[in-house]
Design a protein that fits this description.
The protein is α/β, with parallel strands linked by helices and about 280 residues long. The protein has helices at about 50-60, 75-80, 105-115, 185-190, 205-210, 220-230, 245-260, and strands at about 5-10, 35-40, 40-45, 65-70, 95-100, 130-135, 140-145, 150-155, 160-170, 170-175, 200, 235-240, 265, 270-275. Helices cover about 20% and strands about 30% of the residues. Strand 7 (about 140-145) and strand 8 (about 150-155) form a beta hairpin. It is globular and about 50 Å long.
């Protein structure tokens, strides 16, 4: 595979809960889901409601489909789209799902419980595709093959979670959502994104809003900027947008940032980035 082919597509960029409606059309109302394509390989980051539209697109592709799904944690906004992920119902397809356990419960049991009766009529075991799980721990590395590696670090978030760095050749992308700054986890996250080309970061709040939401497990764009500067990383992409922020407010934030911080961008549904 050519190291020049590293494409990132955003299918869900909203945090906490989906917010459909005319007030979120421009930036999007679906929750976290990012598609990464490296050559012919498919990697999916989180399975929020954005994975439903991704699945509809993938279902149109001919032939067998295989992919790796990296889940940050088991809160609803990061897994609630998976039961509606159409490719998982095709017996020809194969997926490996990675996640961290919560307490003594494996990630596999956590995800299966969300699809058990009476919550959903089809258990995960009956979806059809060959679905396998791999349990992760913070700071564990993964070799996905074809020269693609993944590194992880612990997040500071209620019930835990991890961030991911995907590396292929000399190109890298970090996915760092649902983490709150100001904890011992900061050092591991800083090292994870050191020198990365792109850092996708939890900017749920601004610094002004943050004081009212300490302990909620989310960060600010200002702290994201500090992080990438300290880690000598490249572009910062703001992600996990506050569901209370409408398109007009998002546009005002983006306009302000574009004037003073050209290295910062704001994620939108449908955005495509080539590394």
């Amino acid at each position: 595979m050519s190291p020049n082919n590293f494409t990132i597509t955003f299918w869900g960029v909203r945090g906490s809960r989906p917010v459909p409606g005319s007030h979120t059309v421009e930036y999007g109302g679906n929750t976290s889901c990012v598609e990464v394509r490296i050559g012919s390989r498919l990697i999916i980051l989180d399975a929020g409601t954005g994975i439903v539209n991704l699945g509809a697109r993938l279902a149109q592709e001919s032939g067998k489909l295989s992919g790796d799904i990296l889940i940050t944690h088991a809160h609803w906004d990061h897994i609630q789209g998976f039961p509606f992920f159409a490719p998982a119902y095709n017996k020809q397809n194969r997926f490996r799902i990675y996640g961290v356990k919560e307490g003594e419960r494996s990630f596999e049991s956590l995800l299966k419980s969300t699809m058990a009766a009476p919550h959903f009529p089809i258990p995960l075991e009956k979806m059809g595709a060959d679905i396998r799980f791999q349990e992760l721990s913070p700071a564990q590395g993964i070799d996905l093959g074809d020269g693609i590696t993944v590194q992880t670090a612990a997040n500071n978030h209620p019930d835990g979670g991890i961030s991911y760095r995907i590396q292929y050749g000399n190109k890298s992308c970090c996915y760092m959502t649902d983490t709150e700054h100001g904890s011992p986890a900061d050092q591991g996250l800083r090292e994870l994104c050191r020198g990365a080309d792109l850092v996708i970061y939890d900017a749920h709040f601004t610094d002004e809003e943050y004081d009212r939401h300490r302990g909620w497990g989310h960060s600010t764009w200002q702290e994201g900027l500090n992080l990438v500067q300290e880690a000598d990383a490249g572009r910062l992409l703001l992600f996990h947008h506050n569901p209370e922020r409408n398109d007009q407010q998002m546009a005002q934030l983006e306009e302000m940032l574009s004037c003073d911080y050209p290295q910062i961008s704001v994620a939108r549904e449908g955005m495509v980035i080539e590394l």
